[in-house]
Each structure stands twice: as C-alpha cells, then as structure tokens.
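User: ok so my PI wants both of these folded by tonight, can you help

Assistant: No problem, let's get them done. Here's the first:
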Amino acid sequence: MTARTFTFLHAADLHLDSPLRGLARYPGAPVERLRNATRAAFVNLVEAALAHRVAFVIVAGDVFDGDWRDYNSGLWFTSEARRLVEAGIALVLLRGNHDAESRLTKGLRHGPGVYEFPTDAAVTHTLEGFDVALHGQSFAVPHVTENLVRAYPAPLPGAFNIGVLHTGLEGYEGHGRYAPCTPLDLQAKGYDYWALGHIHQRQVVSQDPWIVFPGNLQGRHARELGPKGATLVRVVEGQVSAVEALECDVARWAHIEQDLTGIETEAAAFVALERALSLALRSADGRLVAARVTFRGTTLLDGALRADPRRVEGEVRNLGLSVSAELWVEKVLIETEGVAQVEAQAQRSGDAFAALAQRLSGAGLDDEELTALAADLGRLGDRLPPNVAAALQPKDPAVLRAAVEPAARYLAALLRHQEAPHGGSSA
C-alpha cells in the first residue's frame, strides 16, 4: 500500500563551490567562510530533510556551477547525498543549464536512492512506498530554447503528480530564455505541484496548482539579497496542505543605502551607518552578513568622501568589524551630491520657472502662444499638481486658457519657496 500523506523538500540552484564574487581580501575578512557557504547551505538542507523526516528531496537543476573542474566537489556532494539515502530519503535530481556546461558532471555516477532525470526525453519517475509521480527532463546542453513542458507525460491517475523543470519562465525579466514556457503551459498539464528552478529569487507563481521557484540555496553576491533556502511541502491524502519557505543560507547579503542628506560631519555619518549595520546584523538571525554600503543624498561631506574613497572604504570596513566579527563589508559606493551642485541646479530651475511665470502673467495670450506654453508646462512633469497637469493635456485652446491661472499661481509659490532664506539642518 502506498502512502498518500507525506512531506518533501523542493530546492534548486545549489551552485556548489560557485566562485562567490566580490571577495576582496583585507584583514579580518571571512573569505574562506564565504567560499564554503554553498556547501554549508547544502548541509543545512540535508539536516532539514532529516529533521522533518521528509519522504524525498527534489533539486530542480544547477547542483554544480558552470564548467566544474574540481572532482572533489562531486565526491563531497555524493557523501552528503548518502546521508539522505541512509535515512531512507530519496534524492531526485534534474540537470539545469549550469550542470549541462560541466564536462565532469556528465561522468558522475549516483548510487541507489538517487535518481536523475534523463536528458533525451521527459519521463515519469515513481517512488516506492509513496503515491507520487515525478515528471521531468534534464538539460542536455546549456541553452535549451524549446518548450520542454509540451512533451511532459500526462499525469498519473490517482497519484500526486509533480513536474520538475529548470526554466526561465516567460515574464521574468533579467533571466535567459531557458526552456521557456508560461504558467498557462504548466497549469494545462494537470499536475498538482511544479518544482521549478533557475530563478534565484523565491517566487510562488500560482497556488492552483502550486508553481514554485524556491530560489537559490545560498546568496552568492550583492544582487542576491535576503533569506535563501528551500520549500517544504506537506501533502495530506493527495492534496497540498502546507507550503513553507525554509531558510538554509549561512551567509546573507545586504545592501545598506545610507542617506547623508542634512548630515554635516563624518562622525555623524558613521553613527547613522553603525545603526544601519547593526540592524542588518540583527535581521540575519546570527548569520554572517556580507554588506554593500552606498552613501546617497545631498551633503556637505560629498567632496571629502570623493577626495579619498579608499580611506572611506577602509573606515567603513573597520566600523563593520567593530560592530561584529560576523559583519563583512564587501564594497563601499559613494553616490552623494554636493550641496553647491544641487543649489546650482535649483538656481537654473528657478530661472526657468521665473521665465514661465512671466509668460503666464501676460494678458491676451493667443491660441498659438497657449499651445507653446502647454508644451513648456508639460516638461514640468511631476512638479505640477495633478489637476493642472491633467488640464494641460487637451489641445483645446479654451481648456488651456482655463489652466493658465492655476499654473501661474503654482509657479509663483515655487519661486517664493526658492527665494526664501534657508537655514538649519534637516530632521
């Protein structure tokens, strides 16, 4: 008799031993810990599978990373997979685009209890003791451009059907067209759950049926922010009863954008940054934090920061280490503006407003002049009140003439604000 109630783990994009980017060496930098983060995250996945007593673990592509050359990575993975198998947990693998790039993975053999979908056709795989059918096809080459889903088998009647697919699902910008398909293509197959891979940000695309990207297991650079991990799925009597994000990462990337507007001393800037770094550390729940710091805003400090960016980067990294040994500053970017520069821009803007205000105050504007004014006022964009901006859209001179007075009042108010003396600091 097969079980219709079980739990499984869905992971993807392990990228084991991926060369993490941005690992600048400096005294105190935890480079080796970051290099080993992908392995440590997979250990956490195995531990979670054991703790939750799951029936099986799915990895929907990209176990390894690119043209993998170190066979020790494969040996290490096999030893961790054995821990699952020895506990009676099946491991189901599908090769993604990065796996297909590797010459060595093609020769890696898996032992009993580990199943890998073939590359030549989509097939159905069943697990002994469980009423479940898994359907999938691995990548034979890195760039699979056809819609593989169309050839996936029909659902197995009476079973809990899972589709396993590595795909750049249509509609997700910034990702290549790998095995492209749409959510409608997936829904049309009649499966109960789609275990997807390739998109590194967790996404629940649909709940009827469940279509899930678990995201990658461990963030690898400053664009892969926030918690990373796998998805735990509970099936009761052949129906999904719970889908839960499970955090497996051991290091967390954060991007701290520190606004220096109104801050006039470096001491005050570093006090504000220390608070932000401490908050990022607390939100990581004890994990190592790799932080990118970007200074923004309009500040008197702009010149000093830009004059010696290496000094600033060193002091920010020292600040990070003083906050915690678990905090590593990956990079410091200076994207502030000087007060004088902004004031000059405001002056130029004020001159343009003054010229427009003078034109608007003129009596007896004819239709041609009104049309030209409408074009000029349209360039103000978001700075005009919605009712005035909307009134300037029609080309009817009568409508434009009615809008002149409120536009003139608004420009006058802007000019008074710019001409008023400025003093004090921002709250």
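One down. Here's the second:
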Amino acid sequence: MNSAKMNLAKQLPLGAAVAVLACSVVAVTPVTYAQPNAAALVAVSPAIEEEVEVTQAFVGTVMPSKTAVIGSAVDGRVIEFPFNAGDRVEANEPLAKLLTDTAQLELTAAQAELDLRRQELAELENGTRPEEVEQARARRIAAEARKTFVAAKLKRTEQLYEDNQAISEEERDEVVSLAVAADQALIEAEKSLNLAELGPRDEQIAQARAQVAIQQAVVEQLEDRIVKHTIISRFAGYVTAEHTEIGQWLKRGDPVADVVALDEVEVVAQVSEQHVQSIRLGLVVQVEVPALPGRTFTGTVIAIVPQADVQARGLSQ
C-alpha cells in the first residue's frame, strides 16, 4: 500500500471568522483480492490530488473604527444642541452652536478697519493724482508772486527809512518780517511740488502694506474664533453620549458629545497559540456576527499585536 502525503496550509480568520486548513492528499490505490483458488481481480483507480478546507472559529469583539469625545474649543453658552444619543451625525455637521453676538460685533469693527487700511494702501500705490500736482504747482506760483511783491515792498521801505526816515523802525521791521515769511513760504511750496511729482516713498507703501497684513490677521483670528463657536464632528458616526444641553455654559475643553464611527468596524480576536504561526498581514477571513444571522462579512488582517493573553494563551488579531 502506498503511503499518504499531506501538505498543510492554514488560514486564520478575524473575529468570529472561520479558519481554513488546506490539505493536499495523495489518494491510496485500492486493491481487491480474489477468493482462494479463484482468479485474482484487481481494480485500480487513478491518484487524485486536491485541497480540503478545514475551518477553525475564534470569538472576537466588534470595535468601532473611530471613537471621539467632541469638546468645545472656546468658552461660550450653548444655543443649539439638536442631537440625542443614538442619532447619526455626518462629517463636519454641527453638533452644537455657541452664542457669538459679541464676537460678531468685534469682527464687524475689525473688517471696517481692514477696509480703511486697504484704501489707504491703494491711495499710496496709485501715486499722486494729476490734480494734486497742479494744485501744488499753483501754490508754488502764488508763493513766488508773494515773495516778489514783498521783496519790492521791502526795497521801498528800506529806501524811505534811509533817506528821511519817513517811516518808523517798527514799520521797517514789520516789512522785513513779511519778506522772510514769503521766502519760507516759497521754499515750502517748492518742496510740496517736488513731493507731489515724485509720489509716495517706497517706505510709506511698505508700512501701509504691513498695516493691512496686521489687520487682516486680526480679522482672520476673529473669524476662526467664530467658527470654533460651531462644534462639529470630524467624521460620520453615531452619538453615544450627551454631555451638554441648551443654555449651559461651556469652558474650553469641556465635552459636548461622544461619537463613534460604525460604517467600518474592527474585530479584535484572541487566537490560540497553536494557530499563531498561521497568521499574516493581509490574510482574508470571514466574519460572522450573531446579531446578523445569515450574513457573512469579509475582513482582512490589518494588525498583529504581539501581546499574549496569559490565561487564554493567544494573540490579539
């Protein structure tokens, strides 16, 4: 009689899965012996090699893929809390809203200040308008004419004072003072005209841009604060616990609700030590849930935790 050869390949399931044991078997050739004193009859069958699946079940625990205690990022009073335990919440859907009246007023004022800063920057970047240059030129012409007039008056006054002292020294000093003022006015008018023709300095424009950036940061900070007054869930799931209610004052970090994600779940199973060697990442297993009779789910081994249970003598998969 030929000997049998068995090739074992084990597959381990996740949770309440069925482990598969694949076997390769070489069939034994059957032999029939004839009765004594009779002709021998021999029946021969061809050897067939095929895999035989053997299952092994392990008990596991279904765990949510995500669990979070959603808290408040700012201080505030709850004005909306529309969810109850057991309700489904979608990703980025508001769980609760806090009062924002004061923050909204601050934001409005900050946005108005930002608009002012932007207009000032635009005025500098656009440079001096042609009308302003013409005004500066007109003031220079007027100052120059004033200087010419006062200079002529001063000349006549000096002549009268020196010839026969027809005027007093006080009157002469007054005209001298007017001449000095006229000279200074002309100098100022000329400088104003030069500045108008050159336009704003680069440093002034840079300072205005910095003021706009600072005010923009203030606005964004207030907007972020208002956004945080709306408490959202970062993923879709179910509310499992409520920690607040309408009218309650929340401090920063206070819990609002517990949310768990059940669209995808993880099954943690304790695997006995004699089957540990058959575990590998990516292994496809079948999962059966007693609460859902007649349905079988397909899972994949995503982690092997090398932490043995002393009593169960198994690993968590």
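The two ends are 43 Å apart (CA to CA). The chain is about 35% helix and 30% strand. Good luck tonight!
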